[in-house]
Specification:
The protein is mainly alpha-helical. It folds into two domains: 55 residues, Arc Repressor Mutant, subunit A, CATH 1.10.10; 111 residues, no CATH class. It is 74% helix and 0% strand. Helix 1 packs across helix 4, helix 2 crosses helix 3 and helix 6 packs across helix 7. The longest helix is centred in the N-terminal third of the chain and has 24 residues. The protein starts with a helix and ends with a helix.
Length: 193
C-alpha cells in the first residue's frame, strides 16, 4: 500500500517539473511549487532541503530510448530523431533542464550525464569504432539539444512551424551520420587551411 508521503513527493515533483519548465530555475519559487502541489512550502523543504535539491530530484530524466538493435542500420538516425521529438513533446522535464542549464551547473551536469549514460551506449553499438562513442554521443547532443533549444525554449518560428515529419527529415540524416559514418581524420586534417 502506498504511503501518503509517496503521494506528497509525487505531487511536489510534478509541480516542480511544471514550474521549472515554465519559469526556469531562477524564477521558479518553492512557494509557487508548493501552491501548485497544494501543500505547505515547509513540506517541500522537509523532503528536498532546498530549491537545488528539489531541482536535482525533479530533473531525473530517462530518455527511454528505443531498442535499435533490430533496426536496419540505415534507419537508426530516423528512429532516434523520431523518438527524441516524441519525448520532447511528452515531457517538460528535459525542457526544464535545458532552461536551467543556462544558469545552473547542476542542470548542465545532469544533461551531460543523460547523454553520456543513455546515448553513449547507442553510439557505441552503431559506431564503426566504439571508442568514438563519447564524441558521437556528444555530436548527437549538439543537434538534439540545439533543436530543442530553438523549438521549445527560444520558440524560433521557422523551427516551431516544422511538423514532426519535417523536423525528422532535416535532423535524421545528420544524426545518422554522427552515429554510423566512418570518419577519416587524416583526410579532414589535410583539407584544413
Amino acid at each position: 500500500m502506498p504511503r501518503r508521503s509517496d503521494a506528497t513527493r509525487a505531487a511536489i515533483l510534478a509541480a516542480a517539473r511544471e514550474r521549472f519548465a515554465a519559469d526556469g530555475f531562477e524564477r521558479a519559487t518553492i512557494r509557487a511549487i508548493a501552491a501548485e502541489a497544494r501543500i505547505d512550502p515547509s513540506m517541500v523543504m522537509r523532503y528536498y532541503g532546498n530549491k537545488e535539491g528539489l531541482f536535482a530530484a525533479a530533473a531525473e530524466f530517462h530518455l527511454h530510448l528505443p531498442d535499435l538493435g533490430e533496426a536496419p542500420p540505415a534507419e537508426v538516425g530516423e528512429r532516434l530523431v523520431g523518438h527524441f521529438l516524441h519525448r520532447w513533446e511528452q515531457d517538460d522535464t528535459l525542457v526544464a533542464l535545458l532552461r536551467a542549464a543556462v544558469t545552473q551547473e547542476s542542470a548542465v551536469d545532469r544533461i551531460r550525464a543523460i547523454f553520456a549514460e543513455q546515448v553513449g551506449p547507442v553510439a557505441a553499438r552503431h559506431a564503426p569504432d566504439p571508442a568514438e562513442a563519447p564524441a558521437r554521443a556528444g555530436l548527437v547532443a549538439t543537434q538534439m539539444l540545439g533543436f530543442a533549444l530553438c523549438r521549445y525554449v527560444l520558440r524560433l518560428q521557422p523551427v516551431v512551424a516544422l511538423d514532426k515529419a519535417e523536423a525528422a527529415a532535416w535532423l535524421a540524416p545528420t544524426i545518422q551520420r554522427y552515429l554510423t559514418a566512418t570518419v577519416n581524420s587524416d583526410a579532414s586534417a589535410a583539407d584544413r587551411p
